[in-house]
Amino acid sequence: MYSESAAQDGSIGYLESQNNIVSEYEDIRANKGFQLRVTHHDTKISNVLFDRQGKGICVIDLDTMMPGYFISDVGDMLRTYLSPVSEEEKDLTQITVRESYFKAIVEGYMEEMRGELTPTEKDAFVYAGAFMMYMQALRFLSDYLNDDVYYGRRYEDHNYVRALNQATLLRKYNEMAPRLRTITRQVAFPSSSTLQ
C-alpha cells in the first residue's frame, strides 16, 4: 500500500533528505571511539518508574537490554523528554524542543557518565536525539505503509500521525542543533575553551 497523503505532505521527502543520519550511524559502527555497552534500548519516559513526589526510582521493561551504543538510550530519552507532548499528539504545533530539558538531560547524564564516555561519544550526544527521532519516524511511517502490522493502530492513520509527529520533532530538533551542541560541549568538556 502506498499513501498519497504521505507523499503529498512531504513527510517521505523530508525523511529521505535526512539519510545522512544513516551514514553517520555506519561511521559510528566502524569508529573505535564508540564502545558497545550494556544498553536498555527503550529508555522512553514511560519506562521510568516514579515515586509519588515525581522522583525517578528506576528503569523498568528490561527485556530489551543487550549490547549497544549509548546513542540508543540517550536518543530515546531526548526523543520522549524534550517535547511537552507525546508521540501521540495530533496537533503538530504543540511539538517543541525544550532547551532547559535538554540541558538537564546532558548535565544529569554527564554527571554519571562523563568519566565513562570517550570524547567521540560525548561529541555525538546531539546526534543521538536525531538518530532516535529519525528511526522512530521511519518505523511509524513504514508500519503505516504496511497496514499497521507491527504497532497496530487505535484509529485510522494512527501510525501516520505518529510518523508526522516524530518528523516534526526531528525538524525542530535539527533547527536547534547548533545551540544544543554548544550546551553539550560546555557540559561534557568543561575544561576546554577551544571546542565550539
Write down the overall mean pLDDT: 88
Order of helices and strands: HHHEEEEHHHHH
Strand content is: 5-15%
Low-confidence stretches: none
Instruction: Characterize the largest beta sheet: strand count, sense, and whether it forms a barrel.
Output: 2 strands, antiparallel
Structural class: mainly alpha
Number of DSSP strands?
4
Q: Roughly how much helix do the residues carry, as a percent range?
A: 40-55%
The spatial strand order of the largest sheet comes to 1-4
Q: Counting H and I runs of at least 4 residues, what is the number of helices?
A: 8
The rounded distance between the terminal residues' Cα atoms is 46 Å
Shape: globular
What Rg is obtained from the alpha carbons, in whole angstroms?
A: 17 Å
Q: What is the topological layout?
A:
Layout: H1 4-8, H2 11-17, H3 20-30, E1 37-39, E2 48-50, E3 56-59, E4 66-68, H4 70-81, H5 99-113, H6 119-122, H7 125-145, H8 158-188
Antiparallel strand pairs: 1-4, 2-3
Helix pairs in contact: 4-5, 4-7, 5-8, 7-8
Describe the structure.
With 196 residues, the protein is mainly α. Helices cover 54% and strands 7% of the residues. The chain contains eight helices and four strands; from the N terminus they run αααββββααααα. The protein has a two-stranded antiparallel sheet. Helix 4 packs across helix 7. The chain is globular, with a radius of gyration of 17 Å. The protein starts with a helix and ends in an 8-residue tail after the last helix.
